[in-house]
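Onboarding guide, step 5: your first structure request.
Type a short instruction followed by the sequence, for example:

Predict the 3D structure of this protein.
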Amino acid sequence: MAAASNDDIYTSLRALMRLRYSARGFSYLPRQPVRSLLSGRKRSRLRGRGLDFDELRNYRPGDDIRTMDWRVTNRTGKPHVRVYTEERDRPVMVMVDQRLPMFFGSRQKMKSVIAAEVAALTAWRVLAVGDRVGAILFNDHRTLEARPTRNERKVIGWLGDLVAMNNELSVTAGHSSHAGGLNDALQVLERSIGHDYLVVLISDFYGWNDATLGTIRRISQHNDIICSLVFDPLERDISGASTLVVSDGRFQLEIDPTERELGRKFEASFESAFSLVQGELKRHQIPVLPVDTANPVTSQLREKLGGQRVLQ
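The system replies with structure tokens like these:
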């Protein structure tokens, strides 16, 4: 990673706080521009804010006949209507992966930093429209939960926890990733939320299996999920690199990707896993938002969730 700044390798609370001024030009609300990833019923099942029952009262001239409560009307002999008020908000849960496989980047930033930035931008945008936002943060050792809130100080609190997790990432001897961490975190999420939440799941989906899809499908039956799939361009084109140096934190090994077609095999493996995750999610009408490490996150979100064309 050439000429990388500190915020490209490890994020900071200051960097995530600055993103609040860029959290515009995109939306997670149901009304989407035509070019948005979420526009159209076939592309997304995102629901609008629902309606809460407020009161039952006598029919008045001009009331919508569709709100008539026929059971009460028949019982009392007088026409009654049900009055609804629009829900004030839709709670949002941001689930952020900070496991060791996310600590990788070949262009601008680490996948772990990109994931943190997507989470921060989402949080600031949700707060800006008056909704509540919480988080499930997980790495290879623990999972943290923050309940949805409109309280900015509490949101900054879990952003600080996210920064702490991000800064703990290190390629050290004996540190291996927990492939089951994604499923463990999803189980925490499933126990934590009720109905009509929006879940923004941000990960590279390392450890994906049938159980992962099963949990996501169960959650999606009563909630909306957007899966932000984070990847690095080198993972799709590793054979284009001349030489690579890999390390387990103790030993280093220089690899020629062309030798024994290592690069081609790695690309084929990555593309197979990448396509599997995308295909399974889309098959169940769950929107997938690919986010790469080579371009600014704000531009990618505006292009894919705001429908704006971004010139590179």
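Each response can be followed by summary notes, for example: Residues 6-43+90-305 form a domain with the Rossmann fold fold (CATH 3.40.50.410).
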